[in-house]
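Severity: low
Component: inverse-folding endpoint
Summary: output formatting inconsistent between runs
Steps to reproduce: submit the following structure tokens with default settings.
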């Protein structure tokens, strides 16, 4: 008799009825069952929040005799299929296998050498809906708080990309600066890059529009990038790297929007004096130094 292999992700906080039925149905057909869990290349995400060990323990808690193996995602279906076959034959060289899946399973993507069986879905269970439901629940338990710590410790250290914009007018003699509420210093308009942005240039255009209104400007010109000494991240391992872009005002009136309380046009020649008076953002000091060296 062949060994059964269930290919799944089980990215849920518990084995729901559909999972249980799949495992029990396959176990009734075979003496030996292997579960192969897909491993995302990302360390923690909204679609793949649970690492391999967490899901392995969840499965073994309900089905202690099952063999559970990890399989990393690959760039192509063909590579993934080949690595799946190698994983099985290298781990169990004398056995033959039958691969099982259910709704939205791996079968359409598999091109390996083992036979596949697609079982009907049992119930209308959605892992996406389960994750969304439980993501909104805050539990008062040591285990819940320990789980949060575990998840964050597993994440890769991150760099958050931002964009800042030097908007000029008057043959680059004047520069637009912004000031946030309850702040006494001036800085460049800008903000975080969004996943929906197609490029840093498009992010810079979007941020400028959000903070200065629908002004028409020349194409964005890259100036420099540098890690910013942002006070919010000084005690964190994660950091910010900003990308400074410049452009020229074509027409339109800049007005403070979003999280800016004020905007003002400032002579580039006055920047050193403003810096000496402490009226420019210390976090943007390297950006001001670049503008002064290039355009003053």
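Observed output (run 2 of 3):
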């Amino acid at each position: 008799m062949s060994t059964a292999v269930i290919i799944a992700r089980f990215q849920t906080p518990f084995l729901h009825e559909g999972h249980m039925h799949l495992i029990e149905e396959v176990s009734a057909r075979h003496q030996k069952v292997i579960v192969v869990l897909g491993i995302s290349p990302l360390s923690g995400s909204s679609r793949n929040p649970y690492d391999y060990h967490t899901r392995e323990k969840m499965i073994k808690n309900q089905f202690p005799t099952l063999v559970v193996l990890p399989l990393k995602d690959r760039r192509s279906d063909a590579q993934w299929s080949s690595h799946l076959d190698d994983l099985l034959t290298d781990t169990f060289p004398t056995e033959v296998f039958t691969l099982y899946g259910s709704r939205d399973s791996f079968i359409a993507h598999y091109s390996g050498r083992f036979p596949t069986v697609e079982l009907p879905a049992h119930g209308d269970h959605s892992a996406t809906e389960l994750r969304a439901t439980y993501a909104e629940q805050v539990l008062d338990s040591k285990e819940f708080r320990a789980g949060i710590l575990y998840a964050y410790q597993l994440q890769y250290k991150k760099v958050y990309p931002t964009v800042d914009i030097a908007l000029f007018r008057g043959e680059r003699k004047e520069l637009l600066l912004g000031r946030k509420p309850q702040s006494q210093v001036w800085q460049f308009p800008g903000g975080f890059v969004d996943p929906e942005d197609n490029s840093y240039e498009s992010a810079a255009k979007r941020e400028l529009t959000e903070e200065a209104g629908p002004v028409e400007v020349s194409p964005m010109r890259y100036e420099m990038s540098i890690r910013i000494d942002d006070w919010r991240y000084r005690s964190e391992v994660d950091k910010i790297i900003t990308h400074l872009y410049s452009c020229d005002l074509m027409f339109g009136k800049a007005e403070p929007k979003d999280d800016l309380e004020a905007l003002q046009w400032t002579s580039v020649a006055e920047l050193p004096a403003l810096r000496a008076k402490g009226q420019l953002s210390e976090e943007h000091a390297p950006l001001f130094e670049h503008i002064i060296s290039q355009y003053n």
